[in-house]
Amino acid sequence: MHLPTPCGPVSSHVIESLSGRGTASAPATAGGGSVLTDRDAQLALWTTYELSFRGFEGVDPSREWDIGLIELRLALESRFEAELRAVTDERVVAGVSRDGDVGDLVLALVQDDDGPHLSSYLRRDATADQMRDYLRERSVQQLKESDPQAFLVPRLQGAAKVALAELQYDEFGAGTPSRLHQDMYARTLAAVGLEPAYGAYVDEVSAISLASANVMSMFALNRRLVAAGVGHFAAFEASSSVPSRRVSAGLDRLGLSAAAEYFDEHVEADAVHEQVAARDICGSVVREDPGLLGEVVFGVICALHLDALSGVELLTRFGAMDTPGTHAAAS
Ligand SMILES: [Fe+2]
Ligand SMILES: [Fe+2]
Hints:
Heme Oxygenase, Chain A; 2 domains; globular
């Protein structure tokens, strides 16, 4: 993968430093603006994270541990996390106050979420170009599907570790390379005429799309956030099966059935995965340490919040925020 194209002072600093062209002193990262919607900050964060995933052509792999870049990453993460905590606080407090089984709680939080119904629009109304736009925006996270959560495995123990390994076995192809979910997504991109290479669209996707990928890396690469990581993962799995069915139907409607394999796989798989993730992973983590319930719920709400922001962004871009069925629960 090539280094991305900078889009502001923070990403310029990171990318110029990695390209070996040298750079001016590190930019201030302690400003008061939103990091979540700041494409420059999210691209800088994404680039520093990729040093721990697949790296970049021509960049020494040892730069993963570059003290200056790690300091910058921590400063950005600090603001990103604080912003996520502030914006989710009310829902997290309300979620934690609900009594009952942890698995039931996680699934109910997802079920009760009334965010924008992007998948209903994709099923019924999207044009082929809008469908491609959606697939392109999601590519930064789906082409590394389950990679961040692999970093959670050594941070868990007992039943939660076993359940995460079971779930990841499916995500990573269940022993068959052609069933690797991230490669299935690459085939979806190719089937609709998009570039399937990892990172191909990082220069085009929005701050929200980068943030949706980055939040998984932040939770997975910081051990103190492991419970938020499992909560996020469970919400991600639990909000996949029904939308996948709708996207698959939308692809069929558009004559793009060849691209539906990835979504068809997730209709069945995630109906099972959501149970494993909510009950066996989140449930076990909280049984082991009841004090982590708030962090699990924080991860769940972060996933729902980012998914809602992404849905609003795309529906607004499509001129469809007023389309019936894109606001409230839709079939
Ligand atoms: Fe998957
Ligand atoms: Fe899954």
